[in-house]
Design brief:
About 15% of the residues lie in helices and about 40% in strands. It contains 7 helices and 21 strands. The protein is globular.
Length: about 325
């Protein structure tokens, strides 16, 4: 039986980033412009690397290539052809992110030979007044979409949400969206880095150049009927486990652990990702091996592990297929 796996995060410096991810994780500062911590990534050039134990120094993709069924599960291995299908991030927005959209699988395959990008956000620690955008707040057409980008009014056509801890936003491919200033959240997404930047407030990069936009590419990717989105708020209490989101790409749940939680993973035939949202937990596998899961830590549980005992006090997100 393979052990629970822990990886080194990749901290991404961006113009809209801040310093809260390191504080949330309880680690030394990684800089004042860290917008993303890639917690579990199979993406070329940014592959997650095991941080300790017998597989220390191996990448996620090397492990999957060596132990495909044991890591992924037989059904996941067959469906995704031996590839790890998800990317997990923490995101800290010290400023507004660009307005953007992602293509679906068919369009991404046609244009980029890549997966598309369906994702979800779970809000952890938003600042007072933090907001984000998802979907349209009015009827939209491709011509109207182009015109509102050209005259800098596209933001006014988006659904705007002021965010509370525990708010959930599901973002299927084709939904125009943006994270606004003041958010700290976890993002679960398909393993794709294909983003069409629609509007960026005329911001400049470090060299004073406008950031690249992908308006015409986005026109063919947008769902123009995506009007009237609503947020849902999910914070479990009293030892409960609540499902957050279920789609063809992932299933996510959040648990309130206050003592002991036993997870039966055998029926899933899938890897499980554990994400510490608050508190501190101890994870024990059937062979008695223990792994700590503090807030801000992400663990990969191979599909070959049939069950886990989780002890402590805190909130935990689980992700599987």
């Amino acid at each position: 039986m393979l052990p629970v796996l822990k990886f080194n995060p990749y901290f991404k410096s961006v113009i809209w980033g801040g310093s809260r991810i390191a504080r949330f994780k309880g680690i030394p500062s990684q800089g004042d412009d860290i917008g993303e911590s890639w917690e579990l990534s199979p993406m070329p050039g940014h592959e997650s690397v095991v941080s300790d134990g017998e597989f220390k120094g191996m990448t996620l993709n090397e492990l999957v290539a060596r132990y495909p069924a044991e890591i992924l599960g037989k059904k996941v291995d067959a469906k995704w052809h031996g590839n790890f299908p998800l990317l997990v991030k923490f995101i800290d927005s010290n400023d507004d992110l660009s307005i953007q959209v992602h293509p679906d699988d068919a369009l991404a395959r046609e244009r980029h030979n890549s997966l598309g990008k369906t994702e979800m956000w779970y809000s952890i620690l938003p600042s007072e007044g933090a907001y984000l955008y998802a979907g349209f707040n009015r009827e939209m057409t491709p011509d109207k979409f182009r015109a509102m980008i050209a005259d800098n009014t596209i933001v006014s056509a988006l659904g705007k949400f002021f965010v509370k801890p525990g708010d959930v936003f599901f973002l299927p491919a084709g939904r125009v969206h943006a994270i606004g200033k003041g958010n700290l959240l976890v993002e679960i997404q398909e393993a794709s880095d294909i983003t069409y930047r629609i509007y960026d407030y005329d911001r400049r990069d470090a060299q004073g150049n406008p950031r690249e936009l992908h308006v015409e590419q986005s026109v063919g990717a947008v769902n123009y009927n995506d009007v009237g989105q609503e947020a849902k708020n999910i914070i479990p209490e009293n030892g409960a486990t609540l499902e957050v989101e279920r789609c063809e790409y992932f299933t996510t749940s959040v648990s309130d652990v206050n003592g002991t939680l036993d997870l039966d993973l055998a029926p899933l035939d899938s890897f499980t990702i554990l994400i510490g949202l608050s508190g501190s937990l101890t994870i024990t596998d059937p062979e008695g091996r223990t792994t700590l899961l503090p807030a801000g830590q992400t663990l990969l549980v191979p599909a070959s592990i049939p069950s886990l005992r989780i002890e402590g006090k805190g909130h935990l997100m689980t992700v599987n297929l």
